[in-house]
Amino acid sequence: MIKYIEETTDYLKDKGFEAPEIGIILGTGLGQLLNNIEVIKEVSYNHIPNFPTATVEFHKGKLIYGKLEGKKVVVMQGRFHLYEGYSLQDVTFPVRIMHQLGIKKLLVSNAAGAINLDFKKGELMLIDDHINLQGGSPLAFKGVEQLGSRFTDMSAPYHPEINSKLEAIAANHNITLHKGVYASVVGPQLETRAEYRYLKIIGADAVGMSTVPEIIVANHLDLPVAAVSVLTDECDPDNLKPVNIEEIIQMAGKAEPNLILLFKELIKSM
């Protein structure tokens, strides 16, 4: 792992990825932020040594380096998922690379289904805590202690100060920003009615197929991290309709301008 991290980091530094301050992971259907970035360099994932390749059609698969609100950023346009056949170490490898490149903070976004029926599709949820239902840990490998504490504390996985800033920005701009618990499942199938009921019982406010492994690794690296879910559908088990993935992507795009405003204002204040 250490050898792979060094090889990949050296490759990106040679490509001009110099001392980024903030890392950003863009979730499903959330690519419009790139329109606000002054792009300096971009590299396709399949050209980066040791990087997985995005296999989901709506995940573009590029690592982008540029400036946003005067700060140097490195952006993942498309992420990796357990359901693509990758290991949890593969899924989180880019977080380790961004950290090695020099980022001091990580911002994560995703598209999620609303389990809490007080939350409506098209709204945003600030993740305050999570439930890992992916059946494993990205830290469960031999030699992990060489990269950080094996027994990583997760009492406050989402940085309280960054979360407070995001809540203040949302209030100042009249953006609905719920706060809640995100459950991460394997997928790629959507949930059954019984599974939605189960998720509600165990305390989830939203459900998705990503993010939690990346958050665990960020905490392993002592990297302050925050995450926002775009709520793309409402998961009411008593009135469940077949899910249309295209509609989910469209809803993500509709809600994205508020997410972009939050991230831009946050980065400006950092």
UniProtKB/TrEMBL annotation:
Function per UniProt: The purine nucleoside phosphorylases catalyze the phosphorolytic breakdown of the N-glycosidic bond in the beta-(deoxy)ribonucleoside molecules, with the formation of the corresponding free purine bases and pentose-1-phosphate.
Ubl conjugation is among the record's keywords: no
An annotated GO cellular component: cytoplasm
Listed pathway(s): Purine metabolism; purine nucleoside salvage
EC number of this enzyme: 2.4.2.1
Gene3D superfamilies: Nucleoside phosphorylase domain (3.40.50.1580)
Enzyme class, spelled out: transferase
Coiled-coil residues: none
UniProt GO MF annotations: purine-nucleoside phosphorylase activity
Keywords: Glycosyltransferase, Transferase
Source domain of life: Bacteria
Positions of the Nucleoside phosphorylase domain: 22-268
Name by which UniProt lists this protein: Purine nucleoside phosphorylase
Protein species of origin: Aquimarina spongiae
Family from the record: Belongs to the PNP/MTAP phosphorylase family.
GO biological process terms on file: nucleoside metabolic process
Alphabetical list of NCBIfam families matching this protein: PNPH, PNPH-PUNA-XAPA, PRK08202.1
